[in-house]
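User: quick one, sequence for these tokens?
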């Protein structure tokens, strides 16, 4: 119940931030808000919720199947750490190197996965979108 309330508050905060006019907040503030919402969704295992922050064209070109979502339910995220980032405000591109701690719920085996997020500013929607999709927590397994 507490997790649901926390996720609901995060979604409401994101919606509120998205509803503000662009002049009321800077691009970088919005980038940080979207990255925070993304990292929260991943940390809490809300991969379906995280999909809403992925660029719509990418989602259409790379749809996530029910089987893939079930696979994400098999893991528990234990850590989500930013290891470096760069942002080109004028160019509308931001990169973040992330380290994710993952535990397989069935075997209790833990591993660390590195992941690079690429965020792009969409002038039409006045929003930052993730263009790299959900992290591959299995790295080709």
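Assistant:
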């Amino acid at each position: 119940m507490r997790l649901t309330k926390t996720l609901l508050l995060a979604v409401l905060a994101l919606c509120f931030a998205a509803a503000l006019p662009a002049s009321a907040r800077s691009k970088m503030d919005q980038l940080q808000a979207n990255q925070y919402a993304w990292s929260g969704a991943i940390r809490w295992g809300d991969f379906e919720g995280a999909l809403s922050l992925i660029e719509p064209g990418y989602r259409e070109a790379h749809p996530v199947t029910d089987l893939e979502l079930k696979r994400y339910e098999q893991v528990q995220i234990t850590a989500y750490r930013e290891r470096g980032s760069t942002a080109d405000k004028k160019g509308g591109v931001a990169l973040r190197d992330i380290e994710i701690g993952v535990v397989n719920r069935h075997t209790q085996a833990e591993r660390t996965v590195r992941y690079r997020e690429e965020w792009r500013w969409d002038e039409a929607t006045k929003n930052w979108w993730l263009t790299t999709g959900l992290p591959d927590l299995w790295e080709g397994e």
